[in-house]
């Protein structure tokens, strides 16, 4: 599946993609060329997240894109979704998760190359680094040096994802450092024409 781990990676947001419009919004992003969609739902009930996961994964498959579920490990295993993304709170469980989950696993590595190398050894499929810019959706996250991406490329064999505060005015600077994927949240969902905005990013690859 690794050939799919490239391009525009959109991540849903409890505020910017509310339940009543999320499917329409994700559809537009996929029509605009998003390659990967992560469902990051921190407020829904397990039943809501489960129903959404099934629906969004079907939608992704229609557009030959990849579906990734954020943090909901047991649910990801139960539904056998394409991918699972784990952050700091589940790092300690990585080996157990890798044993039980057959799909793609991405890990948030913040600015740590050594952490990414460790997870790569244990079977991670991609490493995410960031924030590279001030992020409107995660105002407290640390801003890290763009050169982390170069080092990651030199030292890792798995694809690299850049995240955090990315928008059309700074994305070119980021792409000069050659990430495989760029994750965008607010600069996709806050626009009037999501499909067009997704196309603006997709063209850059």
Q: Spans with pLDDT under 50 lasting ≥5 residues?
A: none
Biggest sheet features: 8 strands, parallel, barrel
Strand content: 15-25%
The N- and C-terminal alpha carbons lie at a distance of 19 Å
Q: What name is given to the CATH topology? A: TIM Barrel
* Helical fraction: 25-40%
- Can you tell me the overall shape? globular
DSSP strand tally: 8
CATH class membership = Alpha Beta
Gyration radius over CA:
16 Å
CATH architecture: Alpha-Beta Barrel
Mean pLDDT: 95
Number of helices: 9
Overall tally of domains = 1
- Helix and strand composition category: alpha/beta
- Fourth-tier CATH superfamily name: Aldolase class I
Task: Write out the strand line-up for the largest beta sheet, numbering strands in chain order.
Answer: 1-2-3-4-5-6-7-8
- What is the H/E order? EHEHEHEHEHEHEHEHH
């Amino acid at each position: 599946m690794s050939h799919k781990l490239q391009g525009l990676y959109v991540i849903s947001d409890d505020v910017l993609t509310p339940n009543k419009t999320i499917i329409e919004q994700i559809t537009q992003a996929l029509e605009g060329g998003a390659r990967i969609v992560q469902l990051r739902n921190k407020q829904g009930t397990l039943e809501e997240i489960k129903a959404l996961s099934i629906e969004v994964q079907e939608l992704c498959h229609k557009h030959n894109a990849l579906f990734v579920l954020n943090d909901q490990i047991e649910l990801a295993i139960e539904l056998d979704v394409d991918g699972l993304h784990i952050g700091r709170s589940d790092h300690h469980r990585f080996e157990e998760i890798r044993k039980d989950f057959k799909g793609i696993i991405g890990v948030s590595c913040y600015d740590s190359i050594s952490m990414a190398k460790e997870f790569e050894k244990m079977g991670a499929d991609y490493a995410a680094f960031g924030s590279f810019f001030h992020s409107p959706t995660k105002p407290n996250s640390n801003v890290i040096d763009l050169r982390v991406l170069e080092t990651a490329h030199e030292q890792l064999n798995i694809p690299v994802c850049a995240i955090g505060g990315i928008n059309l005015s700074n994305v070119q600077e980021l792409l000069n450092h050659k990430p495989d994927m760029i994750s965008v949240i607010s600069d996709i969902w806050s626009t009037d024409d999501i499909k067009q905005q997704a196309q603006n990013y997709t063209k850059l690859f």
